[in-house]
Amino acid sequence: MADQQEEEDLRMALRMSMQNSPPEPKRSKPRDTAILPATTTPEESRQLQRELMAAAAEKRMLAAAKSAPPSSSQSKNERSGDFEMKEAEKKAKEVNLGNELSDKEAHQLFAMVFGTGVSKDILAQWSNQGIRFSPDPETSMGLVQHEGGPCGVLATIQAFVLKHLLFFPDELGKVVANMPQNLNSRRSKSQYVASNNFSAFTEDAKARALVKSMSEMLFLCGNNKRAVIATLSVISNGIEGSEGSSKDVIIAQALEGLSIESASDLQKVLRVDRYTSPTSAFKRLEAMIPIFQSRMGALLFLISALLSRGLDCVQADRDDPSQPLVTAPFGHASQEIVNLLLCGQAVPNVFDGRMDLGGGMFLKGISTSVEVGFLTLLESLNFCKVGQNLKCPRWPIWVVGSESHYTVLFALDTAVQDENELEERESQIRKAFDAQDQSGGGGFISVEAFHQVLRETSIRLPSEKLDSLCNSGFIVWSEFWQVILDLDKNLGGLKDSTGQMGRKIFDLYHFNGIAKSDLNGSQATAEGETPVQRPRLTKLRVSVPPRWTPEEFMADAAVAPGNAGSESSQKDAEVAKPEQPHQHAPLADCIRTRWPRAVCNWIGDPPSIV
Question: Which of 311, 308, 374 has its CA nearest to residue 344?
């Protein structure tokens, strides 16, 4: 009876010792039982088992004692040290300082962005551009740029900000950063016209539009599965809990003297956090907005986008990963950066899909439709061909590229994207033509490919016109299109007896974030008028005449009524004539790549894309 009571006490002690401690790994056979002699008596076996259980209980009690809170007999210094360590860990957890990049990641990131021979001037450009709205009332919805170089980052953010401000104002008060597909489902496919009262946007609305845009873009780079947010260790734990202008003061003091001139410098100050929840990412971005508004903001957002995509994926997107993303000698953002922020992939080209060069080689372009689009002056100079994915985005907003700068073009009325009969048929034929165009956007295809286009688009050309087009051995788009315009509809053409098919008139707005002198907004002083330094916003009236090419329009407009030939041709010329004499600027050339034959008018200084 005593032995049984002793065993019960030992089992109780063993159970108590196992509380709050992890169980030992299960074993198929107890190791200690292997040493028991085969001739042990039942009494000796019970005695040995009690000893083993007691030893195990003692071992667990000692382990529990070591992990227990310090007793009053501990020194004050020990208790103070433990308390400070726990407080530091608690504070770090609350502040969320983020994680350091490994040495390898930091060097890969720095080399990818800037290369090995980057100048201090370029590094200074990218280290002194924040993401801030213009203080000027007329352009307060726009992000202002003070340094050359990061305009590609600012312009793409600006395009997404305009999307949220103009077309989703009712969503700005909500915390959750919706994915693009969720936003689209909440907006009807019918026509929507946004307000042109840009100065009415409150600071809170603009800030939330900025946060939603940044969150959307980072998740876009992360394949809608993740977002990486990069911040700075030198200021991350100083702004938590601060309010108002005190945050700007704290950040300015923390950044004083900070420069990033190498991968080691980047690794020392950069901290990153990874998010899979849009809500968590939105709240983190909202808390860190003062950092992105600081002089390091544009660079931090670019780094966030690259890390969201993944450095290896970025390199796989590119045709030539040996070149830096920031181009020399002026430090401009490459097309790969702009494409990454627009479509989530750092591809270098603007055409649709991929271009097969043969021999297993191909060039990568835009593979999906996008929320906001892209136009470029280089297309009007025949250096490239922008595909339909970028030309026809979901919302009427476009980043506009020139040789050295990026700006933003947008409309308030979604109907500018609607295609009339002429445009719809032109898009269908052009898409089939471009699919066969292996010239890199040169606008010509082989005879064999041409016959494939005719089959796909149900165009039946008379033999004499077919022979004329194929006579040179290749078919040029402009010549083919003129034949289509003169071909009867029952043969697949677009011959128009009314002379009005394709006519459109609408308004566009152009925003250039570079702060420059605005002569139209001069301020009167005692010494005379002083031009205001601010971004520029220009309203354009765009007229698309029916069916005419610009050359045909100018020729017909110059014909006197007495020499017009017929009453019908006079009527056509009158219909084609715009309301005002057209004005010219490089931006108008960009607009004509989206709306062929368009002419533009504006009031005041011409819109600038440089």
Answer: 308
